[in-house]
Amino acid sequence: MDNLAHFGLIGLGTMGAALAQNIAEKGYPIAVYNRTTSVTDEFMANAGDLAPRLIPAKSLEELVAAITPPRAIILMVPAGPVVDQQIEALSPLLQDGDLIIDAGNANYADTERRDRQSEGETYDFMGIGVSGGEEGARHGPSIMVGGKPAQWDRVGEMLRAISAKYDGEPCAALMGPGGAGHFVKMVHNGIEYADMQMIAETYALMRDGMGFDATRIAETFEAWNKGPLASYLIEISGKVARAVDPIAGGPMLDAILDAAGQKGTGRWTVIEAQKLAVAIPVIEAAVVARNLSAQVAARARGADVFGAMPQSLPKDALDTDTLEAALIAGKILCYAQGFDMLGRASEEFGWKLPMPEIARIWRNGCIIRSEMLNDMASALAANPGENLIFADPFTRLVKENEAALRKVVIAATGAGIAVPALAAGLSWFDAMRTPRGSANMIQAQRDFFGAHGYKRLDGKDAPHGPWWDKTAG
Ligand SMILES: NC(=O)C1=CN([C@@H]2O[C@H](COP(=O)(O)OP(=O)(O)OC[C@H]3O[C@@H](n4cnc5c(N)ncnc54)[C@H](OP(=O)(O)O)[C@@H]3O)[C@@H](O)[C@H]2O)C=CC1
Ligand SMILES: O=C(CO)[C@H](O)[C@H](O)COP(=O)(O)O
Q: Boundaries of each 6-phosphogluconate dehydrogenase C-terminal domain copy (predicted)?
């Protein structure tokens, strides 16, 4: 076989097949391999005009032989041990200068480890986060690259070419070394969980609290998609609410079990936030909500034992403008927490993450793409190191919409409609504007039981409280 390909790709599943077609379409010949050969055959049978730029391989040896050295081979397989197995199988076939690119949703710590392991090996390694689902992978994803500048120089042209564009600017950029790209993708997914959860909470308020039917819910999302909330997730929520069940008729949503799956990136975001001691309660609430959603039997039992709350709201308690405003506030608070986490990670790991650039490459291609991210990019550029809630226009937007968020959380709580993410956002915001909180009590308790000491407000030296004066009563 002629050495025609510039790139190789392993894993022709949902993402890999679409990404390979995208790469070929942008003019880069690519060799492809899939564990199950019939999948490769089917992929080639459906390749149409792109077939001349796609080289199918039936083995890893064939794949490697079909790529012009120095090779760049993309892995698009499930995160975890499969990636290690692929690297192990590939490495003896590679030579100096060849590059393995893990484009799946790897845990950033695994990417750091694989990066270290590649030192002294024949191959080089880098990890990139790709977002946009199948459609994005096919026509333009957002790409969060981790690696060395030299690696970015090598593959950046192709990655920019296949990425989504916003006002002509590619949504692909170097985030930092090692696992930085996968870390940013992980936080992207954490924000995705929170964005989805808050939308689901407004859906519950419309369905159960306000008695809206699916058409009215769809109309509401469609209207919101023309305003400040304009985003991919609001757009698809409208489409989902409009969809009709092909089996039983009626709204598709009414036929779907209320238990959401998860592959782990949201959970990892929460775990890493705890390690960094950074507060991302909206994302945490969203992950907890998915865990709880899966407890279908326990929730049914709870309703039996304790009785279900009525859930319907008093007439005129809420309107869709108030819900929209609450969602605007919740969304800003959630992104403020996500970017705060990225800033902390950047300091902790010495990554120098390009914060405005992260917002820029999220403006298109990825699942959380939204109009608001354009303003976030400008706000982060104009206010380096500042939390988004202290940067205009977001300070103004939070001030304008906070009362609606409070109204929605109060109304939902009164009716027994769970709104954990919206409530977590509000609670975080309340804490962020409370100059004298209650942790003086925690300090005192810790000192009382564990002699941990405390800091006084007046700065005076007093290592322990009077409870440690054994002569006192
Ligand atoms: N789906 C999405 O929206 C997104 C997914 N991702 C990430 O992209 C990666 C791929 O996801 P996706 O395309 O959805 O997954 P799919 O399940 O659609 O495809 C998985 C691919 O990996 C191959 N594979 C699975 N197990 C093995 C194995 N043990 N050895 C070799 N090959 C194997 C499969 O081959 P075979 O045909 O033989 O089973 C298939 O080609 C994951 O890391 C995912 O988290 C990232 C962004 C979005
Ligand atoms: O990365 C993605 C989108 O950005 C994938 O679709 C991912 O699978 C979403 O996470 P989960 O499966 O946990 O909902």
A: 181-468
Span 220-278, pLDDT tens digits: 999 999 999 999 999 999 999 999 999 999 999 999 999 999 999 999 999 999 999 99
What's the CA gap between 178 and 148, in Å, rounded? 7
Q: Which fold has domain 185-432?
A: N-(1-d-carboxylethyl)-l-norvaline Dehydrogenase; domain 2 (1.10.1040)
- Centre of ligand 2 to C-alpha 367, Å, is 9
**Domain boundaries 5-178, corresponding CATH code:** 3.40.50.720
Q: How far apart are alpha carbons 99 and 181 in whole angstroms?
A: 16
CA–CA–CA angle 446, 448, 449 (5° rounding): 70
107 is an annotated ligand-binding site residue = no
CATH class as words, domain 441-468: mainly alpha
Check if the beta carbon of residue 48 is closer than 8 Å to that of residue 109: no
Q: pLDDT by residue (tens digit) across 442-464?
A: 999 999 999 999 999 999 998 89
**Ligand 1 site-directed mutation target among 12, 14, 40, 193, most atoms within 8 Å of CB:** 14
Does the CB atom of residue 77 touch ligand 1 within 6 A?
yes
Give the three-class secondary structure for 192.
helix
